[in-house]
Amino acid sequence: MNQEKKAKILEQIHQEEVKLGRPMKLRRYLAEINPNISEAQSTAAKLYREDSPLDEKTIAIINLAAALVTRVPMCIRNNMQAALKAGLTHEEVGAVMAHAQYIAGTAVYSASLEGLESILQPQNV
């Protein structure tokens, strides 16, 4: 990739960082290593936002819930900040946290059900 295109991508990342008010270390690193991947990710993110029938607040709720369930600290922090910027209150962020915890716990329970059934079956002697 030519240096001019790489510089353009890095400048776009810088503008996003200014808008978000925080550094985007991973995006910047990936842009340095493979600017084409960074560019493709930016394009995909833009398409998801532009073509979505969901409003910004709903998208922020979904993104935060997904971040919480996947338990990636950087994603949780970034999506909590994005949720507040999208208009969620602290109470709403707490509610998303509670619902995500409930769903994640339900998934663990459901996944363990098969094992539980196998040990509760009467033993054939």
Automatic annotation (TrEMBL):
Extract the InterPro entries matched here: AhpD-like, CMD-like
What Pfam family is a match for this entry?
Answer: CMD
Where, if anywhere, are coiled coils annotated?
none
Judging by the UniProt lineage, the source's domain of life is: Bacteria
Q: What is this protein called?
A: Carboxymuconolactone decarboxylase
Using the record's annotation, list all stretches that form the Carboxymuconolactone decarboxylase-like domain.
Answer: 46-114
Per the UniProt record, the source organism is: Sulfobacillus thermotolerans
